[in-house]
Amino acid sequence: MTSATAPRRTLTVRRESWPIRGSFRIARGAKTAAQVVVAEIGQGELVGRGECVPYARYGESVERVAASIVAMTEVIAGGGGRAEINRLMPAGAARNALDCALWDFDAKLSGRPAWQLAGLAAAPTPLVTAVTISLDTPEAMAAAAAALADRPLLKLKLTGDGDLERVRAVRDAAPNARLIVDANESWTIEHLHWFGVEMADLGVELIEQPLPADADGPLIGFPSPVAIGADESCHDAGGVARLANRYQVVNIKLDKTGGLTEALVLKAAAEAAGLGVMVGCMVATSLAMAPAMLVAQGARFTDLDGPLLLDADREPGLRYEGAWVNPPQPPLWG
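RE: above sequence
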């Protein structure tokens, strides 16, 4: 079949709700379900899929994100690809779902895996992922850590006052685990002064986004004994120069970059600037994690445990074996 006679591509947008096991709490609040938006690009029997998580922190909602994807229907039908989508849409969740759906579609159309299309030197390999412990009392977080004490990398959600007690309790419960802490913009520079040395003594390897993204100037030249990571402050490659004198690590999330295309560019720019790379996620299904596995190859930290926080994942999903997450297979994505 020639391109002139090929059926027009279709775009389908679907909203889904995936219950979280218990609840997931960070400094900004708690939620009991992951609200995701799925984009599907179809042509004949071929279907490419991408998933995103609208995030209110960035002014997004499920309704607005779904509408932004639907608005690209004619662009997709007319053969628009990743370059056009990235030119027409701003970085964010909507573009992420569509960009990743196009990667999946192109992989299936070409018969080549997405990692080859992305120019990776080798097929993705399994990675050790962090496992997240939600914000809670020191006692509750210690109990959660005890249940995960055999996992090599734990990520603790923190909130400010009382955080040293939380980290000490987790360290006592999981003495051999590597630790990352994530303040989600809830600290002040005074917290960093108070906590830094003791966090280092407790074996914390990374403090994610301690200060609000719009007030992180005090980090310039700050002599932190623990590496500081940019999460809410880090969106796309254009911001790397600003981040380089404040942070030592950047957390790349596809819902912030607006897809795999920009995430790969951001990773290269961050590494060129001497920044370490962490690849993270929102709470979502394996479909959202799958393209991030390409970016996470060779990263300093991988935090792709979103499906482990859900009551159930989609089928087929990524295969998790203890702390290890395996690369996606074509029926899922790529």
